[in-house]
Amino acid sequence: MTDDWSSALLTDRYELTMLQAALHSGAAHRRSVFEMFARSLPDGRRYGVVAGTGRFLEALRRFRFDTEVLDYLADHSIVDDDTLRWLADYRFSGDIWGYAEGDCYFPGSPILVVDGTFAESVILETIALSIYNHDCAIASAASRMVTAAGERPLIEMGSRRTHEMSAVAAARTSYICGFTSTSNLQAGRLYQVPTAGTSAHAFTLLHDNERHAFDSQLRALGSGTALLVDTYDVDRAVRCALELAGPELGGVRLDSGDLAMTAARVRKLLDENEAFDTRIVVTGDLDEYAIQALAVAPVDGYGVGTALVTGSGEPTASLVYKLVARARGTDPGTPLEPVAKWSVGKPSKGGRKWSVRRLDDSGTATAELVYDAEPEPEPLARPLMRRLVANGEVVGEEPVEDARERHARSLRELPETAQRMSRGEPAIPTYFEQSVYT
Amino acid sequence: MTDDWSSALLTDRYELTMLQAALHSGAAHRRSVFEMFARSLPDGRRYGVVAGTGRFLEALRRFRFDTEVLDYLADHSIVDDDTLRWLADYRFSGDIWGYAEGDCYFPGSPILVVDGTFAESVILETIALSIYNHDCAIASAASRMVTAAGERPLIEMGSRRTHEMSAVAAARTSYICGFTSTSNLQAGRLYQVPTAGTSAHAFTLLHDNERHAFDSQLRALGSGTALLVDTYDVDRAVRCALELAGPELGGVRLDSGDLAMTAARVRKLLDENEAFDTRIVVTGDLDEYAIQALAVAPVDGYGVGTALVTGSGEPTASLVYKLVARARGTDPGTPLEPVAKWSVGKPSKGGRKWSVRRLDDSGTATAELVYDAEPEPEPLARPLMRRLVANGEVVGEEPVEDARERHARSLRELPETAQRMSRGEPAIPTYFEQSVYT
């Protein structure tokens, strides 16, 4: 990948036609506040996880209408010449606030707040939603898998089950949520996620027999490698592996069958041969429930694929990006007024919002408080929103490692109910509060 | 996007470690045949749809280990120097056969067959699976939605609910399956998919009131535009739209509420005002079942988002890429031998395969026949596999429009049961046949 691609057309056409109409009426230049939030969590989940922030900020920097892009829009008469001229100069010049990546969120949490003119803010809708809806969905599943795995490491290996670029984002996101490594090399290169992997059934089948395959792998990759032992007969494969590598064998991988029973049998075989440090890694259609069920099995690590990259039944986070306030004119200083669609059953709260997480004396979260104005700082309320973009300048980028540490802290801060696998209510309630300072 | 990106790291690490081990043992140079197929269709679906072929061929052309990629692999000690040197020269030099894009498939259909050395073929596994698993999942859902919609047009508008690059692929795929257009501008640019879209609730909320918003949109986009009429009160909005645009109004969009009841009321209002040609487009959490349920409502088009881009409950197609045959040596002419993992409940058939769709006298498909050798041509058996890559040269690229026409033909060829929305068995059975010519 080269570094000069434009993200500008990862956009729904209606944003540009709205822009054209608003430029025509002049309303395009009204100060506007858009808010991204979830009306509810994925079905039965106790918390959501903010992910995609870093990717969104990168996409924002790349949101430029270069000549190729403008030519496409002109050739297909998507917008008129005035709009093309405006797009050619496009640079977001406003402010963006949001939850830091890795933090937990709840229904109504204002996880992204975009404050600029209508024109410059509305056209970010699709790219923002695409990134956050995908990454938050993966994160919500990944975080629960990490909880289910306890102290045992998790390898993300779902690349083959999702779009090739989603795969890279899923690897990044699962690492933020506590996965140990990924099979995906591009995630290693772009985001410094540790990578893992040794061999597949094809490698065994390629050789004259299993012994030939194991011998090849051990010679090339050393005895610390992990051998895949379920191509034919598992017990025979483990014995063969031990004959060739001895107790120095790094690991064995099981990818099929009854993983709990097989792992117990393999552990016994390994121990009988004094291969006490040889690790057993299990893979094959694992999700958070299967991982939890394997807690008592002698397993040293899990590889997770399909369930991770498809959000374990919830492949999108259902976040929305709504205009919540706008000035009724373009003069500087015109006050913002709350706006909202009339809805039955889908309450949208108008107005710019600020939020904090209320903590008890022990530092455990008790509620998500969403204010209609910036609340006064206080010790038992952790502010949730940080400035990501200041006057058009991206100021919120950070290493993936920081988001990873933040997620672990944020999850520890929640009450223990958050870590239950069973379906239930959000771990803490969300309250919409009137600030005493307004 | 620029044109010189590499797809080489959209790959699982274990492919490169297997490569290293196989180069070490020499088995890397054995002729090998890999096959991509589905063990079953998505739950209850009657047929699958091949999609991603064009994208895979593009990714294959871009599968090059340039200096940046090699530096990453070297710096992180992913593979050894011999392997790096081999990768630097990598060009796939074999043959690839596969089902043409848009054709239907069934359990066991060999939708992609890669015939080359083990080394050059194994490292294509992840990129091939990522592309086909994503695109086939979307296609399977999209095709059913097109059937449900009958003659009415479908707009793909799910970009915001999926990864930003999956969105582009989903737009392309749904167009192949018969959608009329997409909201996604990048799909318009890259794949010449027609684009559509006018305005969102934010546009109405931005203005002083709904009349102000409608007036702005009509002035900028003309009376042929579609107005979104459900921000406040639908009936009032439709009356206002008609006052401003008259019967020339192009369309109205409904995005919430009981779409069937509201559409009937709006149609009546429009007709009373002689706006007989004003179209009613409905959007908002539609899937194939909701579309079918709206068949009797006075609706002129559907916009589909979430359900399309998430495969309507089946976000991945569960295709696998398996080594099915290899030579037991590297001398030219060494015969291929079938290979397969031992499995219970997951039958894998070893050996290179060829397939045809058996037709009856009327041209209706009756069975998928998968042979262990190339069958003799005959009039009532449509050959399904075409050469996509010949001696390393991509020969199977085609315009998206061709795949779109092929899908319509392929679906018409299936028995009528294929078009049922209810869950059931595959529309035709798959038979594995021994060729009389072997």
Automatic annotation (TrEMBL), chains A, B:
Q: What class of enzyme is it?
A: ligase
The GO terms describing molecular function are: glycosyltransferase activity; nicotinate phosphoribosyltransferase activity
Q: Where is the composition biased (Basic and acidic residues)?
A: 401-415
The UniProt entry's coiled-coil ranges are: none
Chain residue ranges for the region called Disordered: 396-429
Keywords associated with the record: Glycosyltransferase, Ligase, Phosphoprotein, Pyridine nucleotide biosynthesis, Transferase
Could you tell me the EC number(s) of this protein?
A: 6.3.4.21
Transmembrane residue ranges: none
Pathway of this protein?
Cofactor biosynthesis; NAD(+) biosynthesis; nicotinate D-ribonucleotide from nicotinate: step 1/1
Query: Which domain of life does this protein belong to?
Result: Bacteria
| Residue ranges annotated for the Nicotinate phosphoribosyltransferase N-terminal domain, each copy included | 9-131
Q: Single Gene Ontology BP term?
A: NAD+ biosynthetic process via the salvage pathway
Q: Which InterPro entries match?
A: Aldolase_TIM (IPR013785), NAPRTase_N (IPR040727), Nic_PRibTrfase-Fam (IPR007229), Nic_PRibTrfase_pncB (IPR006405), Nicotinate_pribotase-like_C (IPR036068)
PTM summary from the entry reads: Transiently phosphorylated on a His residue during the reaction cycle. Phosphorylation strongly increases the affinity for substrates and increases the rate of nicotinate D-ribonucleotide production. Dephosphorylation regenerates the low-affinity form of the enzyme, leading to product release.
What GO CC annotations are associated with the protein? cytosol
Known catalysed reaction(s)? 5-phospho-alpha-D-ribose 1-diphosphate + nicotinate + ATP + H2O = nicotinate beta-D-ribonucleotide + ADP + phosphate + diphosphate
The similarity annotation says: Belongs to the NAPRTase family.
Q: What does this protein do?
A: Catalyzes the first step in the biosynthesis of NAD from nicotinic acid, the ATP-dependent synthesis of beta-nicotinate D-ribonucleotide from nicotinate and 5-phospho-D-ribose 1-phosphate.
Q: What is this protein called?
A: Nicotinate phosphoribosyltransferase
Q: Which organism is it from?
A: Lipingzhangella halophila
